Each structure stands twice: as C-alpha cells, then as structure tokens.
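Marked as duplicate of an earlier ticket. Keeping the data here for the record.
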Amino acid sequence: MTRLIRPYLIVTVIALIYALIVVVRAQTPLALVTIGAQFSPTEAQFSRTEGYDGQFVYFIARDPANADHLIAAGGDFPAYRYQRILLPALSWWLPLGETAIPWELLIINLIALGAGTWALEGLLTRRGASRWIALGYGLSLAALGSTRLTLTEPLAYGLVLVAFYLADQQRPLWQVALILALAAFAKETTLIFSAGYAFYWALQRQFGRALIVASITITPFIALQVALYARFGQFGVGSGGLLATPFEIVPWMGVIRILTEGGVAIFGVLMAFLLPFVILPTLWGLWRAWHDLRTNTITLWTVLLAINALILLFVPFSTYREPLGILRFIAGLQIAVIVYAAERKLRRPLRYSTLWAITSLIVIASDVG
C-alpha cells in the first residue's frame, strides 16, 4: 500500500482539497479565478476585489473572441494575456458550458500538476535521488499555489518536466521539442528551457539537433506573436501586464529598486523570502555553472541551471516587488536546481529545495485571512 502513496498523488489530492475548501467557503467556483472589480464588478464579489491573473485565463476560456474588450477595459493588455492561450483553449474545447469553466480549468491544472510532479519523480529516481524531493516543487507556490489560483504555471512547467522526462527516456528529439513548444503556448517563460536545450546541443557541436529544437519550439511561438500583432496591434512578448516594468539591464536592479523606491521597511519584509527562496538559489546556480565551466564538466542540466539562474539577475522590478509574481517566476529555477543537484549527488541542496513547499503558505494565508 505504501508503494502506491507517491508524491504526485499527494500533491494532486492536496491541491484538490484546497481548491474545494476555497469553493465551499466562497460558495462559488468563481473564487478560484480571483476576478477584479476593474474588470467585472458584478463578478468581483465572488473573489478578491483586486483580482489576479487567473481571471484572464477565465475570461479567454469563456469568450475567446471577445475577452480582449473586457481585458482592455480594465486597463490590461490583451496581447500579453492571449499569448498564454493553451490553458484557456483546452477549457474552451471541453463542451461542458460556461458555468463549468472554473472546474475545467482546475481539472486541467490538477492533471498537469500531477503529471509534472510524476515526471520530476522519474528524473530524480533515474539519478539515484529520493522521489520525495519532488514535493519541494509540487507543494510550492509555483505549482500548488498556482493551481489554486487558476494560473498557467502548472500546465506550462508540467509540460517542461514531461518533455525532459521523455528526453531521459531517449525519445525522439522532435517529440521533446514539440512538447516544449506547447509549453511556450501555456507560458512564454518556458522558452528559457527551449533556449537552454538548443544551446546545449550547439555546445556539443550537434548543430542539426540544435536547429531541430530551435525551429520546432520557436517557430509556432513566432507565428502566435504575428497573429497577436495582427489582431491587437502589438506583440504579446514585451507588452507586459498592468503596472509591469521592463526587464532590467543592471544585474539585481529589480531587487535594489525595492530598497530605493520602497524603503528599508518594505525591503526588509520582502528580503525575508527573497533571500532564502530566490537570491541564494540563484547565486548557488551561478556558482555551480561556473564550477562546471572551469572543470569542463558541463551537462544539459548545467546549461539549464545556468540560464534559469542568469535570467533572475534581470527580472523586472514589478516582478520582484510582488511576492506571488517572483515565486511563480522561479518555477524554472526550482526544477533546474532539483534535477542538477540530483545529477551531481548533492544532498544538501536537495534537502534545501524541499523548503520551497513553504512558499505556498503565502496563498494559504491570504485565503484564511
């Protein structure tokens, strides 16, 4: 019986129970999509009045042809929201009706959460590490918390994990690249993994394989961006959401601006979780990548760890100043740290990675409060 109790089952059941509790307390499944008053005053009563990103997934799934008017009327940018089309498209494809959409989105994310955690288990055990380390990812805010909030991270990074699980199983390269292409349609930040995968093959001087990965993953995404520009007059990439700031040029400027613009008190509060959950893992990832470069021991997961850590140096101030935003953004770093540490038999970083499960308490606390 104990062999049937696996991390992927645990996180899926916990996420389901958590979501059901939220729905029962609010007496409506719309509580899962956190609609803001500025977008839909009549529906905002069922969730937090300021709303959150899950509302855009819901709007597009409910009415993909006209949701842009609602998004724009609330001050956000339709092209930016529509580029994350996979999750709402899957819900729209299910013929269960408008009232079932929040449940459809939840079910899709639960499946993605379970599949991603299952794939991570496989990546861990193949490298001789305990499958239970996968709980650090599966129970984190980027996975569990995002499932509760109807966000795109569970689907996007679930696909990434499945793709690299298949790569471990020596499946055809085009299959791996195709799944990574789908992940980019769920959330564009997964292209970091696609870029790292292509770059790794280029480092191995297998330029044909690098070209296959790059062309299969980026071509559909470019086509999507062209379609978004034709429809909305702007590309999804770079347009950002409401109150978004651009990527920084100076390393760590997104963190530094918390101090210079927010003050010492706010900086101290945010650093309480930025330091252990974001900054230290980033610095560790950069250090390990430098170590592998000097010792000529670079592997695929060295490259994936390096690129996920490097991007954290330039993440926008608007992402760093929002706890939910930055803890969602580090989903890729979490995956890279866990698999790399397992590959190198580094027990301390593996144990440390389980602390990411604590981050979900931010969302849980807001629901309880």
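See parent ticket for discussion. The chain has a mean pLDDT of 94.
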